[in-house]
Specification:
15% of the residues lie in helices and 37% in strands. It is of the alpha+beta class and 260 residues long. A hairpin with a 2-residue loop joins strand 12 and strand 13. This is DUF1365 domain-containing protein.
Length: 260
């Protein structure tokens, strides 16, 4: 199996992010995107042109941008989290972090996904690490109640407890579907509130081996991607404001950093 097809090997994915708001007004957009898929057990061995791991480069991955956000190793933090929630016994294999790196030192990552596998390479748990534009973060720990394998297309739910958009309330639930295997990994998230699907989102891309050619292709295609994420968020917010969508003031963040 080639590196581009193995979900447990380092990869760069080129694809798109999709949003469609269904109610109370319709608003839809699709933007190009790129992201990394990094097996955490291999971070110390990565040596890729243009990509620095714990050091400055055109692209850089920093442990302090994830998990406890103190620069300590990520795997022990995640292992402790899984242990506290009784999941360490089933998610005892490779962990693949799907995320965007810093570009020229700048980063805004709306959501990163930690794909936690068992020793046979089967997906068992996903940690969705969500950030908002107020500098706050929250983790949704997602798994089947019976702790069984997460298959492509399975729907898993999480109660919404964290403020992201001022045009949506902190109420209702997210419904996740993961397609983490193969050459085109993707995540779909629907937001439901009041018995109605209000928002559909998806992010996915075609995987390539993580090497210097792939990082150069990213730089050439999307040289300002991380900055563009912030600009696009505010542009879409302006469109919703002009459509007179109800505005919700930001509540206090949840007391716990992780919910399930």
């Amino acid at each position: 199996m080639s590196a581009a097809h193995d979900p447990l090997l380092p990869a760069v994915c080129f694809g798109a992010v999709f949003h469609e708001r269904h109610a109370p007004v319709h608003n839809r957009f699709v933007y190009p995107t790129a992201f990394l898929r990094l097996p955490l057990s291999r971070l110390g061995d990565l040596s890729v042109p243009l990509l620095g791991v714990e050091r400055a480069n055109v692209f850089s991955f920093r442990s302090r941008d994830h998990g406890p956000r103190d620069g300590t190793p990520l795997l022990p933090w995640l292992s402790g989290l899984l242990e506290r929630h009784g999941l360490a016994g089933v998610a005892d294999g490779e962990v693949v972090l799907q995320t965007m790196p810093r570009m020229l030192g700048f980063l805004f990552n709306p959501v990163s996904f930690w794909f936690c596998h068992d020793r046979a390479g089967t997906l068992r748990v996903v940690l969705a690490e969500v950030s908002n534009t107020f500098g706050e973060h929250h983790n949704y720990l997602i798994h089947h109640r019976d702790r069984g394998p997460i298959r492509p297309g399975d729907e898993l739910r999480a109660i919404k407890v964290f403020h992201v958009s001022p045009f949506l309330p902190v109420a209702g639930e997210y419904r996740f579907r993961f397609h983490a295997e193969g050459v085109a990994p993707a995540v779909a998230i629907d937001y439901w509130e009041g018995g109605e699907r209000r928002l559909s989102t998806a992010v996915g891309g075609r995987a390539r081996p993580l090497d210097g050619r792939a990082m150069l292709a990213w730089l050439v295609r999307y040289p300002f991607m991380t900055l563009a994420v912030v600009v696009r968020i505010h542009w879409q917010a302006l469109r919703l404001w002009l459509k007179r969508v109800r505005f919700f003031h930001k509540p206090l963040p949840p007391l716990e950093e992780t919910t399930r």
